[in-house]
Protein: Acyltransferase
Organism: Pseudomonas lundensis
Amino acid sequence: MSLGSNNPLWAVIAYALAITTSALLLRYFPRIRGSLEHVGENRFSSVDGLRGYLAFGVFIHHVAITWVYLHTGEINVPPSNFYTQIGLASVALFFMITGFLFWGRLLKHGRHHDWLAFAVSRVFRLYPLYLPLLALVIFSVLYIQDWELKDSPGEVVRQVLAWLVFDRPDINQYPQTGMLISNVTWTLNYEVFFYMALPLFGAVFLYRKHWIQVVACLIGIYTLYQVIGWEHSLKKHILMSFLGGIAAAYWVRNPERMAWGQTPKAGWIALLALAIELLLFRKSFAIFPLMLLTVFFTIVASGNTLFGALRLRSIRWMGEISYSTYLLHGFVIWLLMQRLPLALPFDTKEPLVFLTLTAFSSCLLIAVSSLTFLLIEKPGINAGKRFLSWLRRNSPVNGPVKSASETHNAD
């Protein structure tokens, strides 16, 4: 079981531990069972299941990076195609999910899309969990530094404000502060760009009125592209991932194509495309790898459960808590792989010790993510719904509230 080879055995073991933990939580905790509900006609159960695999795949990817870091002192992707792609391909597929769900809503609602509900839902989806995580990062940095301010208070405030918009400058001169969370928030910049540009894209491609409107919207898109990528430029080849999801949104609107996508033959094609991606390529954000991932995702979006692998209740729960898993896994890795060894007499460079900690982290991550989903994420989503209702009641122009819940259910 080497991180230098494409042998997926230890990744399979980690997945098995995570899935088992999820299954046990569902069995013994009624509140979790009750939360595993996918209501609303716009939910795609196969996509929900896919989320569970993807978020945990990013965790495995960063565990492999940690192994490389412990032995070389450098933060690099692992030499294995598989352990590199299990993270990069997962991120690309997450972007496809975003493109698929929200472009699909534009196709469905057109000019009647509820943009207020959309905006409120995105804020209350991203920040309720992110803010406590940021507080935890700040606390950890200051605790390690014995509460000594190495920068001026104003500079520290500026650094924290940058983190609030998902940038990751070093806080109080703590080197590579972003590594406390495996720098995962870089993807949120791309998500935010897509959310903010979505009405402009819709005006250009779906319900344009006049060429002046098109030009104005294109200028707006370019401006957003520059502003959101001010510190770290948004990469065009990464943004192309969203196109795979948009293509799938058009595919599933055709009943015949969607029916074919649910066949066993389509399932085998999807698995073959994914296997080629994971084993033969070093990059995900390039034309041919993205085409392979688009084939895979389109078949999944059609409702193909990949021979039941996406239908498991334990996987669906992992999909439900995928945002917590994605956002928190870096801190779990940092805590167990880098901070814990400073207090206990063991060497994480030893393969057996490292694999033992990985196994423990796999179970702990699912348990912690389940807890934060129930105590932070879900209440945050509900708070967003209440806030939207409050806005409706106090707005001189009342709009439909129904689409607010639909928007929340989409992600």
